[in-house]
Write a structure and sequence with these properties.
- With about 350 residues, the chain is an alpha+beta fold.
- Helix content is about 35%, strand content about 20%.
- The chain contains nine helices and twelve strands.
- The chain is elongated.
Length: about 350
């Protein structure tokens, strides 16, 4: 795996993606089910291996002399036991699995004022994530972000639910943040749903869980849970567009002109400008994000410069070509992109 993926840019340290460290009620249900299944199957393993070892030791002398231990033929108690026991085990596992699925897959409600829930449409692309913020606290949001999903973190007993509608723009993807929820497929032409909530502020990492092409392994998910006040400030900033300012340096003004003069505008969107593309990440607040290229490199000026110069060097196979910009045009465009906060 790419070393950038291993670091994951969580303060320089790899972040937990273990299902055994849940931070959401749904993830806790999955953890409990996993422990139960592991306990039952572990008991079966120990029992079977114990009988096998016992038989190997108990009758090893008979094997050496060629004699056989007593054989049992047509024992109804044994046949009933080895038929009934697996049947009961499967029945119990089906019941608890069904209950868990029922708990973690409720039908999402309609947005209502005062319920403080967040509704987002998440769309998988090759190889990045689009997040359309629909409603929060019953109020319409109507803006788009990319690759980093910001959510409100509540207090214990008062966490805010996040409802995701999951779509795909191209091939099958799968949205999986192990500490927050189970894996849910994103299928072209079909909308699936999931929910989670957490009272733990911080960064939660995930992966695309369905092979979707060349850069599948570098299609990372970053969920940033913030206290409600911080989240609402982030919302207010994201709702704004990007208008030119009179006091912008000349390099930024010329960089804006160079950006809008390139074919970047056919794919990317910058709210408040003629760039209104929809098939690549929204760049309106690019520099408010911690990473570039769907989480695989830190969002630093140097990495941004390298990405604009040759995206294929950082993420081979990605759908953004190298435009062969001159050093001057590249630097001007990067200067402009760095103002998009």
């Amino acid at each position: 795996m790419n070393p950038w993926t291993l670091l994951a840019y969580g303060g320089g340290l790899a972040q937990s993606q273990s299902i055994f460290d849940p931070a959401s009620p749904g993830a806790a249900e999955i953890r409990n089910l996993s422990i139960l299944v592991l306990a039952i199957t572990g008991f079966i393993f120990v029992l079977v291996e114990g009988i096998l070892l016992y038989a190997s030791v108990r009758f090893r002398r008979g094997a050496a002399t060629g004699s056989e231990p007593p054989q049992v033929y047509g024992s109804k108690p044994i046949e009933i036991a080895w038929t009934t026991a697996p049947g009961l085990i499967v029945f119990v596992l089906v019941l608890v699995t069904t209950r868990t699925l029922w708990e973690i897959n409720p039908t999402p409600p309609d947005p209502r004022p005062g319920d403080q829930a967040l509704f987002v449409t998440a769309i998988g692309h090759q190889w990045w994530w689009e997040y359309r913020y629909d409603h929060y606290d019953g109020k319409e949001l109507s803006f788009t972000a990319a690759n980093e999903l910001h959510i409100p973190a509540g207090t214990k007993g008062g966490a805010r639910r996040v409802y995701l509608a999951l779509d795909s723009a191209d091939v099958c993807h799968s949205f999986w943040v192990p500490r927050l929820a189970g894996k849910t497929d994103m299928i072209p032409g079909r909308t699936n749903h999931m929910w989670f909530q957490t009272d733990q502020p911080g960064l939660f990492l995930g992966q695309c869980g369905e092979f979707c092409g060349t850069q599948h392994a570098n299609m990372l998910i970053r969920v940033i849970a913030e206290p409600a006040a911080d989240f609402e400030r982030w919302l207010a900033n994201e709702k704004g567009g990007q208008q030119p300012r009179e006091n912008d340096p000349e390099t930024v003004k010329s960089g804006r002109k160079a950006f809008l003069g390139q074919s970047c505008v056919n794919c990317h969107r910058v709210a408040g400008t003629p760039a209104q593309g929809t098939c690549a990440p929204d760049l309106t607040h690019l520099m408010s994000r911690q990473t570039l290229a769907a989480g695989i490199v830190a969002n630093t000026p140097e990495n941004l410069r390298q990405w604009v110069a040759n995206p294929q060097k950082i993420k081979p196979g990605c759908l953004m070509p190298a435009f062969g910009l001159s050093d001057r045009d590249r630097d001007r465009i990067v200067d402009y992109l760095r103002t998009l906060r």
